[in-house]
Amino acid sequence: MRKILILLILLAPAALLAQTDTLSITLENVKYPHPVKFINLTAEGQDIRMAYMDIKPASTNGKTIMLFHGKNFAGYYWKDVIKSLTNKGYRVIVPDQIGFGKSSKPFIHYSFHLLAKFSKQLLDTLGIAKTAVLGHSMGGMLATRFALQYPETTTKLLLENPIGFEDYRTFVPYITTEEQYKNELKTSAESVKRYYQSSYFPEWRPEYDYLVKIAAGVVNSVDFPRYAKVSAMTFTMIYEQPVVYEYLNLKVPTVLFIGIEDKTIVGKGLLSKEEQAKHGQYKVLGKQIAAKIPGAKLVEFEGVGHIPHVQIPSKFNSALIVNL
């Protein structure tokens, strides 16, 4: 009995740490850089709510920009970008898309058209008629859809290492949402970090660890199966709803910001090493897509991976401001 008590005492700090690190699937215990508000929406008969930050500058230039996060992220990672933009007088709107971050995680048919509509509803609620849109990763696919769907609202389209430069259906083997759900259930801090290291950053730094901590923190939540299911549903959305064929239809000024060391492929784990080497090459894809978009400007960053605004914040923010 005495040995059991000693063992429990020794294990207590580790158990407490695991409990502390557990995150809810709506990230209630993740601090965002600015106050978070909510807008009520409905989808397929369900009442849901969309989280967002609305940051107004001390001295306004009368312009607005909306930031769309990537699939494995949410509004929390835009801190430095928000500060840079508000310092220049921009009002900054940062939604967590439905299914992500602090927003609801409903079981619905996810589509970029629907997420774009929800984002437009947010702007309408806030009385914003015109905005520039910056989309990173999956947010780049959404930003492209938003600009195609609401060209009269979009003053400028800004794409930061967006996914969707390729039609993944043409080379990534198809798996069902249920199969992807089973894959999502295997998520761990170790698997998240391995993926981020292999795809997102050419060299890992300790300051990136918070991204892993948030992405993996939900794994221990009792609601993680719901989170995993929604993640599988949005994987299917990305796979089945390419935008690559529609870049030539864009009618708004467009700027691409590309870290050329990026090697992101949606469904990368389903490919052989040989197939992986053939795709996700942003040093080539950036130029190819820029050539398809009427009047597009391409800004490339040497030695930079999937998230320029995290890896090189000062350089990225300077380039962003110059091109707004």
UniProtKB/TrEMBL annotation:
GO BP annotations listed: acylglycerol catabolic process
Annotated AB hydrolase-1 domain residues: 64-199
A single MF term (Gene Ontology): monoacylglycerol lipase activity
Signal peptide: 1-18
Organism in which the protein naturally occurs: Arcticibacter tournemirensis
UniProt GO cellular component terms: membrane
Domain of life, per lineage: Bacteria
Key word Signal present: yes
InterPro entries: AB_hydrolase_1, AB_hydrolase_fold, AB_hydrolase_sf, Epox_hydrolase-like
UniProt keyword terms in alphabetical order: Hydrolase, Signal
Pfam family, one: Abhydrolase_1
Keyword Signal tagged: yes
Name the UniProt record assigns to this protein: Alpha/beta hydrolase
Gene3D superfamilies assigned: alpha/beta hydrolase
Lineage: Bacteria, Pseudomonadati, Bacteroidota, Sphingobacteriia, Sphingobacteriales
